[in-house]
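## retry 2 of 3
previous attempt timed out at serialization; input unchanged, resubmitting
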Amino acid sequence: MPHPLTASGPVTNTVLAAGTETVKAAGTVPQLVIAALAGVVVIIVLITWLKIHPFIALTIGAIGVGIGAGLAPAKAVESFGTGFGDTMTSVGILVGLGSMFGKMLVDSGAADRVVDTLVRKSSKALLPWTMALIGALIGLPMFFEVGLVLLIPIIVLVAKRSEVPVMKIAVPALVGLSTMHAFVPPHPGPLVAISTVGANLGTTLAFGIVLAIPVIILSGPLFATFAARWVPIPAPDLFGSRGGSESGSGSGGGSGAGSDPAHEGRQARRGRPSQDTASLPNDKSDFTRTITEPRSPSFTVALIGILLPVVLMLAAAIREATVPDASGTWVGLLDFLGTPMIAIGLAALYAIVFFAIGGGMDRSAVSKSLESALPPVAGVLLIVGAGGGFKQVLIDTGIGGVIADAVKDSGVSVLLVAWVVSALVRVATGSATVATVTAAGIMAPIAQGLSTPETSLLVLAIGAGSVFLSHVNDAGFWLVKSYFNMTVGQTFKTWTVLECLISVFGLLGVLLAGVFIS
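## retry succeeded, writing output
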């Protein structure tokens, strides 16, 4: 019997929805294939050419696929709505809580504390490795764009103070951030892929962290040596000091206070002013200045908060893998605490109490910080929900069954197919999130026949493909270019190459793991 990752079998016009209910194909096989291809093309054209928001593009494409495949218009809309609602139920709460936790981490000074402590304890030779660790820690709970803006002033200051080439500092930090964004929940991409293909979150989290370590090493500190030779640029003067008011001279940089995501939180947790008198000879006072220093949590408190949800979810996953039939009060408690919503919710509460209030923020500042955490993720949530709707349409039309049978008949590794589909959508649209939700929807029916570990590897293959070949249609490309004052060619030599390395090394790691698991 062929292995499910490279299986072959007869072509059918049905697919198992949610693993139980048989769905009859809405049209002929050619009609289904044409509808699916046309839908993906429409989504890509709307996003890249007409500059339509991905939420609208995915909605139009999904409903169009349903109608084109033979569903009644009302049924196509109903199918899309069902998928949208199911995905938001499983993913939306986690994204909202994760965003609040990340905001508390920044505004309370906990992120600053972790970064400053690690950098202070590193030698010049270890700095690239330390920056990779910092990028990974910052990337674990935060969205990519927020983490990038937070890391930029850290990278610049470390490069200037250490007199190490800026690319040796920047590349490892960016690799750590991007790798976590691609492989490790609770980022929206991995979360929606997990929900769509029915993977186990704890298992995927464990596999993602294990995979991220070699990927970060190979794509970060080791590649940074070559990047520093290819692009020997000076550290840009974007920030005079972290949270300062000095304006930057780089294109797109802006002022320190305006570009530093922790600035408002830092102002909110300044302690009582103290008087500092600068004296002239003969004890004559020249002037008296008022000093207020921001408070922040300790390094230990900050690190516990960052790792808390990871430890809880991993503990539940390990329990399930090692003693699946265990029962009792402690087992029930462990499973409850390891539930993703509970684990991330506890982390958010921990951040409010120990990060924010413990760091000197009053109730008004905490409320404002939590409120401001949600608007930036509204667009992400809509995209994720629309991706879930697109997936459900593919299932209800029977297109998923045709795709699944075609992949099985090809004899090609399902993991490689998932990576290729995700990478193609990423290159075409420039969005890792769109690539992930689209590829996950297409691959969902195939996941029905995979084991729990194999399904988690499928999620990681999709994540690896979603960061492949960042170029001029990716907002991250232009952010990195502007922050470091690089030319387009220099950005290709650094940022684009490191994203390709993350993607390819991630794929190789997934394929290697698939050999051992099979």
